[in-house]
Amino acid sequence: MNSYISKILFVCITLVFVGCSDQIKEVVLEDSNKPNIILFVSDDHGLDALGAYGNPIIKTPNLDNLASEGTKFTNAYCTSASCAASRSVILSGQFGHATGSYGHVHDYHHFSTYDTIKSLPVLLEKAGYETARIGKYHVAPEKVYHFNTVLEADPRNTVEMAEASSGVLNSDKPFFLYFCTDDPHRGHPFTPDPWDAPNSFGNKKEGYKDVETVTYKPEDVIVPEFLPDTKQSREEIAQYYQSISRIDQGFGKLMKMLQETGKADNTIVIYISDNGMAFPGAKTTVYEPGIKLPCIIKDPSKKVKGATNNAMISWVDLTPTILDMAKVDYNKAAFHGKSFNEVIDEENPEGWNEVYASHTFHEITMYYPMRVVRHDNYKLIWNIAYRLEYPFASDLWAASTWQATYRANEEYFGPKKVKDYLFRPEFELFDLSKDPKEVNNLATNKDFDEVLENMKTRMKHFQSKTKDPWMIMWSHDASLQGSGVNL
């Protein structure tokens, strides 16, 4: 009897061992097929300053080459034109009003993501990825946005950052590299002396090690339509361009290093910015220059090259998209965004005609909640605190571009009146196909009452779906307030 049982046990153990061996081989094989992913995020880079998006003056050959080898999105949006708030969405797949990431995470703000959130790097690490970050972080707490490896380099020198990433590029495991520059954010000091001196945008007279200094003449730059065409604007834009050309060189260095590892054919590269250019009318606003951004994706598994995609996508879609790319199973209901991985190689995919934005704070002293829905060509902005004066970020207020208008008591700042920029109506409704500058507010036009109500309904549905606490401001509806007990 014992001999018989022993034989049975031997057979069972053998079968289990063989089954486990096959399972292990299958997992290893699956891991070996997982792509590497590089998410390259610049700081305050708008659509206005990239060759691939139509600027003939700025020199961005490496980013332009990425577009020629992949897909360029023309309707890509961040959800909040503020650095920390935007980055929390990029890495969580949820709007900041639902995660506690209301604004900057500077120590005196204490804005911080709820510790129950499972972020992109944590989910990828769990799936077997080597996760690494370098450069600007600006999210909290670290345990929510944890990366296996933290690399150190000057975040203004993208060539140095690329070189510091060598170990990750040569990882034995599939890797996720979160590469975040400080360029082209405005540089310190924010307040110039004299007042009309252009900000440096991180540029230095002595330049940066191993980086060619590329300069621009103010008379040659292209002034975006939302800005006044002044001496001060042009001088600052020239500095902004220089900072972007530094980004491009570091990006080129990183791509060259990737090619040398032999992994380029299995590495997805994504280039985005956190929000629009750091000029009044863009950054910290929900107007198009603040939230409509570059997005270039090269996925070697896709057949298209040099493609243009007109789908409306949002940074809230990035986490589920990257998980899809990484072949990681995930709960779709855990995210507010949805994966656009399957439509990257399409030009006009169906069902991608609506995006939302949600801004509450930049600095804690800048309370000005705004909610946005764009559906097809219509865009509705709800300025929830419209009775307040629109608050200025300190670096934008001190900018010579703004001060030239303010000190001269000019009536207009670009195409908008200064008083309309500082004091906004409760609702702003635009038809972007006819009014891309967003100057003709249709919200008070009786001919558009039906459109306005339709857009309000879409906005309320979005707020309800994403548990936006500011939904209470519609009709003092307290249904989202809960019990008041912190569970």
Task: Outline the structure in words.
The protein is of the alpha/beta class. It folds into 2 domains: 33-348, Alkaline Phosphatase, subunit A (3-Layer(aba) Sandwich); 372-475, 2-Layer Sandwich (Arylsulfatase, C-terminal domain), CATH 3.30.1120. 32% of the residues lie in helices and 16% in strands. The chain has 15 helices and 14 strands. The strands form 3 sheets. It has an 8-stranded mixed beta sheet, sandwiched between helices. Strands 9-10-11-14 form a 4-stranded antiparallel beta sheet, covered by helices on one side. A two-stranded antiparallel sheet has the order 12-13. The chain is globular, with a radius of gyration of 24 Å. The model is unreliable at 1-30 (pLDDT under 50). Belongs to the sulfatase family. Keywords: Calcium, Hydrolase, Metal-binding. This is Choline-sulfatase. Residues 35-327 form the Sulfatase N-terminal domain.
Question: What are the SSEs and their pairings?
Answer:
Elements (H helix, E strand, L loop, with lengths): L1 H31 L3 E7 L18 H9 L1 E7 L5 H10 L3 H4 L20 H7 L3 E6 L13 E3 L6 H7 L1 H4 L5 E6 L50 H31 L5 E7 L14 H4 E7 L8 E8 L3 H8 L28 E6 L10 E6 L2 E6 L10 H5 L1 H8 L4 E2 L2 E2 H5 L4 E5 L17 H17 L6 H4 L12
Parallel strand pairs: 1-5, 1-6, 2-8, 3-4, 3-5
Antiparallel strand pairs: 2-7, 6-7, 9-10, 10-11, 11-14, 12-13
Helix pairs in contact: 6-8, 8-12
Outline of this structure?
With about 475 residues, the protein is α/β, with parallel strands linked by helices.
